[in-house]
């Protein structure tokens, strides 16, 4: 290209008045230079870099130039015009001729690079003609000239041997890496704007010199792995297996199945380190079921991940409330040059970018968004593709909607060359086979179903497995199961054991039942704590910190206290109790709950416990007496509606027969008896409820198939650009967010405390800490505060419309009342059916 052609088409506005407007072709070469580093080992590197160099070809045109220089409105976005140029018969013919192959392989790849702003292009032939005509004849000549020049800059680029099916599969990866390269290449600090002058070859040589430094500043140059032992303690059986199992060549899936408290997380880190050293990934993403469990894992991972690499890795926390984590703030504030993991501003600026760090810890939702037709799904996919994906508590994703999402994610991850590790205590064999099959389909390898029921198990489908383990040196032994006929019996038992100095817990299925239980315990003079999901984030963090300090591994002051909680106690939280009561729940949930019973035998051996043995006391009706489908409702209140009734009955029946949870000996049998394909038939009175559950499962599966991306169709036709909220990662009852306020000094303040209005970050944090979610259905029956009244309207006057539509302001009075039927108590959380502090529940 001639100098006049280069300077004719600006690609970026001047950073400041008087500074140069960066030429579009120079920007495109900046991005391609970044892509060269990111794709250094990719077999199609030159082809991809050539196409990425053309990603903003649509900026060559009168419409975009007028928008940039004069502020006129574009009727079509520049990335749509990029596809229009690359589908121009002359340009497309030029590319197909020089690259070999055919149009069928080229077109999906072109659409992938054009769609680098988070959504695929959707225009058609008549739109392309109009876009090209509006760009002008001069732009057509210059766009063609730039394509010719790029073909000369990457002479090794070729489509030879690529069929359309392979090209469509590659689009998910290509669109993601284009986005990342464009973000880095657009940073004016790393690629300073300059006037036209250098030839394209000269400019590309200079951009290639700057690209590694830019990626290093962004935190995107992964450090080399390190093979030194990660832990200095004596390894447990599963951890030894992770250290010794033979790794297959290529992408691999490993499934770690062992009881809670067996050290699965450490085993996963040991195995992941070996996989990193074997070239099966450049980093990790550890996916947890909830934000609370992600926060807990982040604290553990922070101490470990530095040992995985020869240099300091980047470490991020990925979920919607990551900015409120004290541990993550510490990492954010770690000074460059430290030996501790770091997270720079560029990576921390977005939850999406969090998946690009060397090590990410977050919710499974952040990973599942990679297979939903949402904006920047391909960015998430590319970030994950470079990593070993570790899914903790994989059994939590067993319901039909999330199971389909996870299977799709594993399939796509394997297609991109990624590897994965699943951790679970209670994975049914059918779900294990389904996830293994999905991964095998992604690799293109044949699948041989593994029905071996051995437990514990470390298995690599189509590879090695370990199913014979030495018994652990210290174990709590069998957990006896005792049925309690009603809540009153549970209260009596907890009162008796608390009086004897035991640390007790009651896991309830519903928040309202948990609140009622705490009130009843306190009425008996028992010190009882409460944890559930209906606290503001500020209060929940306070309660969680107190809970861990009291009932955690090194907890103190636990004697004679009772913690009442909901399912938030079930997964990945390192708690230890002497006595446990649980509402009846499916067997997988009860096994998880029982994992918090007599957990740390090294610190609290049997002779120091105030009870003779571990017992799981289950509040449940007699499974031998079923007269109607309200069998459970006479014993549990709202908690009777939480889980499928058939699973509940089967659990009660099998535990009545076995009388114990014998880990690990009978865990597999218990799980399969309730959740397996040959589960026993339910009593006739419950058959209708089971058929309804089966129908709901089919509906959820169908919903999931419609909601996930269509991998075979490629990014253009099988992806999308919707907002994340339009495609939820989980199905559940709709909720509404309440932002709680209080009156102090004659004005409204956030529930969590005051914030400097001039400090946007502090204000956003105070808002987030003051929010609580509740059932939209239950709130719909209440007379919510008028948001348009002068006081509340003034408080939210600067909010965007989407926030006004999704968040309701509520003022909590001195007596805890919000309005009739709703109150908020610091120690009890959000209370329905109460209008003041003194009202009953």
TrEMBL record:
InterPro entries: Cas3-like_dom, CRISPR-assoc_Cas3_HD, CRISPR-assoc_Cas3_HD_sf, DEAD/DEAH_box_helicase_dom, DEAD_box_RNA_helicases, Helicase_ATP-bd, Helicase_C-like, Helicase_Cas3_CRISPR-ass_core. The keyword Hydrolase applies. CDD domains: Cas3''_I, DEXHc_cas3. Pfam families: Cas3-like_C_2 (PF22590), Cas3_HD (PF18019), DEAD (PF00270). Residues 245-445 form the Helicase ATP-binding domain. One of its GO terms (biological process) is defense response to virus. Keywords: Antiviral defense, ATP-binding, Helicase, Hydrolase, Metal-binding, Nuclease, Nucleotide-binding. GO terms for molecular function: ATP binding; hydrolase activity; metal ion binding; nuclease activity; RNA binding; RNA helicase activity. Signal peptide: none annotated. Residues 17-184 form the HD Cas3-type domain. Coiled coil: none annotated. The keyword Signal does not apply. In the N-terminal section; belongs to the CRISPR-associated nuclease Cas3-HD family. This is CRISPR-associated helicase Cas3.
């Amino acid at each position: 290209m001639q100098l006049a052609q280069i300077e004719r088409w600006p690609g970026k506005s001047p950073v400041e008045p008087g500074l140069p407007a960066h030429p579009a072709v120079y920007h495109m070469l900046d991005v391609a230079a970044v892509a060269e580093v990111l794709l250094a080992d990719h077999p199609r590197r030159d082809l991809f870099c050539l196409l990425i160099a053309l990603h903003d070809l649509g900026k060559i045109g009168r419409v975009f130039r007028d928008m940039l220089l004069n502020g006129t409105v574009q009727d079509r976005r520049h990335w749509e015009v990029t596809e229009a140029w690359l589908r121009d018969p002359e340009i497309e013919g030029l590319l197909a001729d020089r690259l070999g192959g055919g149009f069928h392989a080229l077109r999906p790849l072109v659409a992938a690079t054009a769609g680098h702003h988070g959504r695929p292009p959707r225009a058609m032939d008549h739109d392309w003609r109009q876009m090209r005509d509006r760009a002008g004849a001069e732009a057509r000549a210059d766009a063609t000239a730039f394509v010719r020049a790029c073909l000369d800059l990457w002479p090794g680029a070729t489509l030879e041997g690529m069929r359309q099916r392979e090209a469509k599969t590659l689009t998910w990866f290509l669109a993601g890496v284009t986005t990342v390269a464009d973000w880095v290449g657009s940073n004016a600090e790393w690629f300073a704007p300059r006037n036209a002058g250098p030839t394209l070859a000269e400019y590309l040589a200079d951009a290639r010199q700057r690209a590694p430094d830019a990626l290093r500043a962004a935190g995107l140059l992964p450090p080399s792995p390190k093979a030194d032992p990660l832990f200095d303690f004596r390894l447990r059986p599963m951890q030894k297996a992770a250290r010794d199992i033979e790794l297959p060549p290529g992408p691999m899936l490993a499934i770690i199945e062992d009881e809670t408290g067996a050290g699965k997380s450490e085993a996963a880190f040991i195995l992941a380190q070996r996989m990193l050293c074997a070239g099966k990934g450049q980093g990790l993403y550890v996916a947890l079921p909830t934000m609370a469990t992600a926060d807990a894992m982040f604290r553990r991972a922070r101490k470990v991940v530095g040992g995985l690499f020869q240099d300091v890795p980047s470490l991020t926390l990925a979920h919607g409330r990551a900015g409120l984590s004290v541990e993550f703030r510490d990492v954010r504030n770690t000074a460059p040059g430290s030996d501790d993991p770091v997270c720079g501003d560029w990576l921390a600026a977005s939850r999406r970018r969090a998946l690009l760090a060397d090590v990410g810890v977050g919710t499974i939702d952040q990973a599942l968004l990679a297979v939903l037709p949402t904006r920047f799904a391909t960015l998430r996919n590319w970030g994950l593709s470079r990593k070993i994906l570790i899914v903790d508590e994989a059994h939590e994703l067993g319901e039909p909607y999330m199971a389909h999402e996870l299977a799709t994610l594993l399939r796509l991850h394997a297609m991109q060359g990624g590897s994965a590790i699943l951790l679970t205590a209670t994975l049914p064999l059918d779900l294990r086979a389904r996830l293994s099959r999905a991964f095998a389909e992604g690799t293109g390898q044949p699948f041989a179903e593994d029905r071996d029921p051995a437990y514990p198990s470390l298995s690599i489908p189509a590879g090695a497995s370990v199913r014979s383990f030495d018994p652990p040196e210290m174990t709590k032994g069998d957990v006896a199961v005792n049925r309690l006929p009603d809540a009153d019996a549970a209260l009596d038992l907890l009162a008796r054991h608390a009086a004897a100095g035991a640390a007790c817990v009651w896991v309830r299925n519903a928040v309202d039942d948990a609140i009622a239980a705490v009130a009843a315990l306190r009425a008996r003079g028992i010190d009882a704590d409460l944890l559930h999901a209906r606290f503001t984030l500020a209060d929940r963090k306070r309660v969680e910190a107190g809970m861990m300090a009291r009932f955690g591994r090194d907890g103190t002051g636990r004697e004679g206290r009772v913690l009442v909680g909901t399912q938030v106690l079930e997964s990945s939280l390192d708690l230890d109790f002497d006595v446990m009561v649980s509402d009846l729940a499916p067997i997988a949930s009860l096994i998880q709950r029982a994992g918090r019973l007599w957990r740390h035998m090294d610190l609290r051996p049997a002779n120091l416990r105030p009870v003779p043995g571990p017992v799981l006391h289950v509040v449940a009706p007699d499974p031998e007496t079923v007269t109607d489908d309200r069998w459970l409702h006479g014993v549990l209140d709202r908690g009777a509606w939480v889980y499928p009734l058939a699973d509940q009955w089967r659990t009660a029946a099998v535990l009545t027969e076995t009388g114990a949870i014998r880990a690990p000996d009978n865990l597999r049998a218990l799980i399969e008896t309730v959740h397996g394909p040959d589960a026993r038939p339910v009593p006739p009175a419950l058959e209708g409820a089971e058929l309804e559950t089966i129908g709901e499962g089919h509906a959820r599966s169908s919903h999931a198939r419609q909601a996930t991306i269509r991998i075979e169709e490629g990014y253009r036709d099988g992806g999308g650009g919707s907002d994340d909220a339009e495609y939820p990662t989980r199905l559940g009852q709709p909720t509404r967010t309440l932002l709680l306020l209080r009156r102090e000094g004659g004005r409204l303040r956030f529930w969590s405390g005051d914030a400097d209005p001039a400090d946007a970050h502090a204000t956003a944090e105070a808002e987030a800490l003051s929010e609580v979610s509740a059932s939209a259905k239950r709130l719909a029956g209440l007379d919510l505060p008028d948001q348009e009244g002068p006081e509340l309207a003034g408080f939210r006057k600067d909010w965007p419309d989407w926030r006004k539509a999704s968040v309701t302001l509520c003022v909590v009075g001195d007596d805890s009342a919000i309005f009739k039927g709703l109150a908020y108590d610091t120690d009890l959380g959000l209370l329905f059916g109460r209008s003041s502090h003194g009202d009953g529940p």
